[in-house]
Amino acid sequence: GAVVSQHPSRVICKSGTSVKIECRSLDFQATTMFWYRQFPKQSLMLMATSNEGSKATYEQGVEKDKFLINHASLTLSTLTVTSAHPEDSSFYICSASINRPPYEQYFGPGTRLTVT
Amino acid sequence: AQSVAQPEDQVNVAEGNPLTVKCTYSVSGNPYLFWYVQYPNRGLQFLLKYITGDNLVKGSYGFEAEFNKSQTSFHLKKPSALVSDSALYFCAVRPGGYQKVTFGTGTKLQVIP
């Protein structure tokens, strides 16, 4: 099956700094990628939909200036958490979608962000 | 709007016994339904999906799920639970032809030796 990677798998950063998370589709092209956030013992919440070559679509309540998404190519989307704070600590998961029916989505392994 | 309900936060089952993890959904049109498993600090692993066809879907690791349109349910089942099945299970739905997936709140499965 299709493989999606995320890098890094874990990152610790200091409060006030920015951190970038990469999501790559390794063996297929993904016009659309999705970014999810998961708090401990909770479900995945969709943050934004990332479309190659255009601006991301953010879900209600997600700050687009804080969570910058770039989808510069058909195999790479990046999520940058700007001016990170401890409350941004979370598990971030991306998925990549093949853009033809039935629009299969493949999930990355996730990135654990800890802001100290 | 689509939604998924997993009514049980946790399910405990003895090793070797059958297990069921419940899921009901609400979506316009024909649903695409999914089950994923998540181990601690790991991403989601795909178990199975229903798009069309037979209501009983077989997936990875001996799991299966039954699509029941009248009850809008898609319960996950396994005839004989293993301790290694202990994990967090998510049901998910999206309308056919669309990409946005909605996840349930997850059910923690604990298989007791």
Summarize the structure in words.
The complex is a heterodimer of chains A (116) and B (113). Chain A has 116 residues and is an all-beta fold. Helix content of chain A is 0%, strand content 53%. Chain A contains no helices and eleven strands. Chain A has strands at 4-7, 10-13, 19-25, 32-38, 44-51, 57-58, 67-73, 76-81, 90-97, 105-107, 111-115. In chain A, a hairpin with a 2-residue loop joins strand 7 and strand 8 (76-81). Chain A is globular, with a radius of gyration of 13 Å. The N and C termini of chain A lie far apart (37 Å). Helices cover 0% and strands 53% of the residues of chain B. Chain B has no helices and twelve strands. In chain B, the strands form three sheets. In chain B, strands 2, 5, 6, 10, 11 and 12 form a six-stranded mixed beta sheet that branches. In chain B, strands 3-9-8-7 form a four-stranded antiparallel beta sheet, with no helix packed on it. The radius of gyration of chain B is 13 Å and the shape is globular. The model of chain B has no long low-confidence stretch (mean pLDDT 92). The chains are: A mainly beta (116), B mainly beta (113). Chain A binds chain B through residues 1, 6, 32, 34, 41-44, 46, 49, 91, 93, 95, 97, 101-103, 105-110, 112, and chain B through 32, 36, 41-44, 46, 51, 90, 94, 96-106.
List the SSEs and their pairings:
The complex is a heterodimer of chains A (116) and B (113).
Chain A: E1 4-7, E2 10-13, E3 19-25, E4 32-38, E5 44-51, E6 57-58, E7 67-73, E8 76-81, E9 90-97, E10 105-107, E11 111-115
Parallel strand pairs in A: 2-11
Antiparallel strand pairs in A: 1-3, 3-8, 4-5, 4-9, 5-6, 7-8, 9-10, 9-11
Chain B: E1 3-5, E2 10-14, E3 19-21, E4 24-26, E5 31-38, E6 44-50, E7 56-58, E8 64-68, E9 73-78, E10 87-95, E11 102-103, E12 107-112
